[in-house]
Amino acid sequence: MDSSQFICIDDKHLLQAETCRAFQAMRSEAQKSGISIDIASSFRSVERQLAIWNAKWEGKRPLYRRDMTQADPATLSDEEKLHCILTFSALPGASRHHWGTDIDVYDEKAINATGKPLELIEAEYVANGPCYPLHQWLLQHASDYGFDFPYAVDKGGIAKEPWHISHKASASEALEKLTLTQLAKDIKNMPILGKSVILKHLDEIYRRYVLNKGIEQ
After folding, report:
1. 3-state helix vs strand vs coil in the chain, percent to 5
2. Which residue blocks in 89-194 are alpha helix, DSSP H?
3. 163 neighbors 120 (Cβ within 8 angstroms)
4. Mean pLDDT score, 64-77
5. Mean pLDDT of 43-65
6. pLDDT at position 217
7. Is the whole-model pTM more than 0.85?
8. How many whole angstroms separate alpha carbon 133 and alpha carbon 76?
9. Rounded alpha-carbon distances, angstroms, from residue 70 to 64, 67, 152, 155, 191
């Protein structure tokens, strides 16, 4: 998606115009209740997502299992490594962050008060976590501004992400354009590591992680 059509917010984050307007209105309303909504990540280019993917494939970034225990890449088959990465990192070309419709949010002041860096882990958003008040406010009010939580439930696809909000109407339109055929074409033309195993399992990847339908029962 062409990021030149996006609006810059917070001096460095890009969002689609409609998403940006909705987010700014929501953030202003939250401030009236003493809630701070800060952006950890918004638009992310395919190139940036590719760098993350390749670093994980090469073992230059840590890999985690669904239970958050660290995995040793040397002990994983290519297929196991594929699913290990996909649980926490989207396939380049298929990340919702490419669309400028999705935002990772946090409370910067609350995180800073802990003396620890933001990790974007569930523990930061549950009871007694620094971002818990923010998350509770969003659960009550985000839908009023057109936002939902695409990864509110772990279905066996993308792991649970309470920090990830999506402008539903704009994201739905973008998802409709991301067909399996288009994704296959993009992957074939991309310098991505693990390409052969990705293409072999692309049907499953598309259903399980991109559409986030999880594991078939």
Report:
1. 50, 10, 40
2. 108-114, 132-141, 168-177, 180-188
3. yes
4. 92
5. 96
6. 44
7. yes
8. 39
9. 4, 9, 23, 21, 26
Structure tokens at 57: 């494939």
Q: Is the CB of residue 103 less than 8 Å from the CB of residue 39?
A: yes
Question: Identity (one letter) of the amino acid at 174?
Answer: A
Tokens 């999705």 -> residue: 102
User: Does an H or E element contain 196, and which?
Assistant: helix 195-200
- For range 193-206, the mean pLDDT: 98
Q: If you ran DSSP here, which 8-state letter would residue 77 be given? A: -
Rg over alpha carbons for the chain, rounded to the nearest Å, is: 17
Q: Is 70 helix (H, G, I), strand (E, B) or coil?
A: strand
The interaxial angle of helices 17-32 and 132-141, nearest 10 deg, is 120
What the block records as the tokens of 17 is 């115009």
Q: How far apart are CA 62 and CA 9, in angstroms?
A: 30
Q: What does the block give as tokens for 101? A: 């419709």
